[in-house]
Amino acid sequence: MKRQHIFITNDDGVDAPGIRSLINFVRPLADITVVAPQKGHSGQSHAVTVGVPIRLKRLVNEPGYRIFSCSGTPVDCVKLGLQQLCEEPPDLLISGINHGSNAGINLFYSGTMAAASEGTINGIPSIGFSLCNYSHNADFSACKNPVIEIVNNALENPLPKGVTYNVNIPDLKPEEIKGIKECRMGIGRWVEEFDKRTDPFGRDYFWLTGRYDPVEVVDGTDHHALENGFVSMVPLTLDMTNYTYLKNIAENVQKG
Amino acid sequence: MKRQHIFITNDDGVDAPGIRSLINFVRPLADITVVAPQKGHSGQSHAVTVGVPIRLKRLVNEPGYRIFSCSGTPVDCVKLGLQQLCEEPPDLLISGINHGSNAGINLFYSGTMAAASEGTINGIPSIGFSLCNYSHNADFSACKNPVIEIVNNALENPLPKGVTYNVNIPDLKPEEIKGIKECRMGIGRWVEEFDKRTDPFGRDYFWLTGRYDPVEVVDGTDHHALENGFVSMVPLTLDMTNYTYLKNIAENVQKG
């Protein structure tokens, strides 16, 4: 039987400890192609590079194990990698492990999750992984077992078309993790605190800072699972239509 | 009665004809605050500026009519503008008019629609407008009536919490537009055709080009409405959970 093929990317850059951990965890399971940004692209969401050419650089080229850096965004890495480096579609695309949570509304800003969604748009079963610790030197050891379990499962039972998984792992010791929980996405928001300063020439400038407010922490949400020591797994859709509201409008139109 | 207040942004930049048309159309309806990128940010999606300070520049400051340019992304414009320039939340946020379609899967890449979603995340009723013509010199006259109708309606009947509207306007003459249609988002994809070249030093580089393939053009989708001469209005959700799949998993777990 032909060995399966996993495509790996991230948004923290090809040298980030998170993607290095992810590669190490899944390398025994399948052939690997890594295409990741040459530098960090946090907060880049689904951005693509328009009007500037993109370059690829081959870093590793062993049988069944290739690593490329790409000058573009995480979504560029997926588009270019799938088109130029994969003769057949890979069996699975995984993105991460992100340095920091992508639970709740965070996924809107996340390059890691945008790359995973881009895989899904291209018909590849795709999963994004994030550790709830923003530090560059975070300890990824607690991610090992959940990542291997989820990736093995996805290789054996391919995800349905159009579904992306958002997996977040709490910042705990391996033995403190209570299990993996299927969840819905909790609604939250960033409470921004712009730090307003004045430059030496008398002009104002602003630093974007802030903290995440997980507004919805009720049972069933990813926020709640993570606070209670579980790995959260949220199946995401590409269809952002609000059907509840679409239905209400149609009913009103009929009534009117 | 206090005059209502509309916040306006876009992703093509503060000088783009699209946002200038939008401002002209709605200025008679309400007080206006514009905060838009100082240069174009197409394809920037929900990107935020991390690690670099952001600047605001005041361009117009009349009673009830203010325009600022911002050095950041469309989402930065919304965050910074709402926090630093609005003592009370505006009654409505509108983004656009984008030079080019944001129907279907295009909204994933769109700074215009990300800015509208950011408004919704911040509790502001928000609408993104796009004209299905990518040209800088597109004719926005067909947008006037639909924009005024939709904005007037949203000022009189505030949108429900958590809903963003994605409005796309076909590239037709005003008299050719058949009406406004509530739709669901059609699923589509970009068919990329990377243009691979070699630089004078022998190294490869790639230009991202391509064409949009509106895979789903069935009745009820935005793709279908636009192809048939209607303005499409899709209510969007912030909650990207795939509930169909979440339900299937829960049922399987119960069965198992």
Distance between the termini of chain A: 61 Å
Mean pLDDT over all positions of chain A: 92
Largest sheet of chain A: 9 strands, mixed
Query: Percent range for helical residues of chain A?
Result: 25-40%
Task: State the assembly state of the protein chains.
Answer: homodimer
Please identify, by name, the CATH architecture of chain A: 3-Layer(aba) Sandwich
What is the overall number of helices of chain A?
6
Radius of gyration of chain A: 19 Å
Looking at the structure, the CATH topology of chain A is: Stationary-phase Survival Protein Sure Homolog, Chain: A
Strand segment tally of chain A: 13
Which pair has the most extensive contact? A-B, 62 and 62 residues
The main sheet of chain A orders its strands as 3-4-2-1-5-6-7-13-8
Model description:
- Two copies of one chain form a homodimer.
- The first copy, chain A, has 256 residues and is an alpha/beta fold.
- Chain A has a single domain, classed as Survival protein SurE-like phosphatase/nucleotidase (Stationary-phase Survival Protein Sure Homolog, Chain: A, 3-Layer(aba) Sandwich), CATH 3.40.1210.10.
- Helix content of chain A is 25%, strand content 29%.
- Chain A is built from six helices and 13 strands.
- In chain A, strands 3-4-2-1-5-6-7-13-8 form a nine-stranded mixed β-sheet, sandwiched between helices.
- In chain A, strand 6, helix 4 and strand 7 (163-169) form a beta-alpha-beta unit.
- The longest helix of chain A has 13 residues, at 144-156.
- Chain A is globular and about 60 Å long.
- Chain A starts with a strand and ends with a helix.
- The interface between A and B is large, with 62 and 62 residues.
